[in-house]
Amino acid sequence: MAALASWLDARAHGGRWLVRIEDVDTPRCVPGADHTLLRQLADCGLVPDEAPLWQSRRGALYQAALDTLVRRGLAYPCGCTRKDIETTLAAQGRARERHGELVYPGTCREGLHGKPPRAWRMLTRGAGRVDWTDRRLGPQSQEVEREVGDFVLSRADGLWAYQLAVVVDDAAQGVTHVVRGEDLADNTARQVLLQRALGLPAPYYLHTPLVLGANGEKLSKQNGAAALDTSDALRCLREAGRVLGITGDAASAAGWLQAATREWARRWVPPGPRQ
Predict the structure, then answer these.
(1) Between 2-12 and 233-243, two packed helices, what is the crossing angle to 10 degrees?
(2) Which of 31, 88, 104, 266 could bond 149 through an S-S bridge, CB–CB 3.0 to 4.6 Å?
(3) Using 50, 70 and 90 to split pLDDT, how confident is the model at 155?
(4) What crossing angle do the helices spanning 188-198 and 162-172 adopt, rounded to 10°?
């Protein structure tokens, strides 16, 4: 659904629609899933304007960004395990916050204390409140140091963190408008901090509503979501459109996309010169 929303947003703005395979967490990637996804998008008439980009092939760019942060004193090595963090927080009497995520207590900010380095973290000390505006959700705010702590840029297993990868790639691809699911809105303040630290432009953000399962959680294979069947493209587009609040209809997938683009433009593209 987020793919459809981003396609409509690109068309409504007269821009390019880019597809990125965010596969930095390679152990969790199912072989062939990327090509299945691209085929399903094409079945629905959603074809990127440039060749798709695989993040798993772009480690050198992420390393260069990390090196820049280290030189600027904004990133540091961390030797803490998850158990170490839990123990420290418990000793401080701090309950786990933010939907069960551990807020890093800054243990390794001043050194590793004899521990071997495991990960690299972004220094959030003094970051204050990060304010940003979502095109759908409105004004957003987060105290990153208090609510998240110094977040991971490069993991203990050597894999790159989502936060760093998307910031680097958004800038490298010239992305001006990011459209993605509402479950990722909480990440945005961290990405804004990284953009500022690396001297990169901040895109406009729009976070779409989620398709929820019977348990109220995001619909996924873990809670019974059926595999997407794109053999009937028009039906797929209509179903996704209903969640996005698109009321129009047409007799073909191509016709539906044209009508939906006009409806999206009326709702989400301000009058006057396009952004």
Answers:
(1) 90
(2) 104
(3) very high
(4) 60
Residue pair 193/166 in contact (Cβ under 8 Å)? The answer is no
Contact 212, 219 (CB under 8 A): yes
| Residues 224/213, Cβ–Cβ less than 8 Å | yes
Domain boundary among 179, 194, 219: 219
Structure confidence by residue, pLDDT tens digits, 122-142: 999 999 999 999 999 999 999
CA–CA separation, 9 and 4 (whole Å): 9
pLDDT-derived band at 167 (thresholds 50, 70, 90) equals very high
Q: Which residue range(s) make up the domain with 66?
A: 58-219
Over residues 4-20, the pLDDT tens digits come to: 999 999 999 999 999 99
CA 264 to mean position of chain CA atoms: 22
Rounded CA separation 85/227 (Å)? 37
Same domain, 4 and 132: no
Answer whether residue 256 is part of any domain: yes
Q: Write down the pTM of the prediction.
A: 0.90
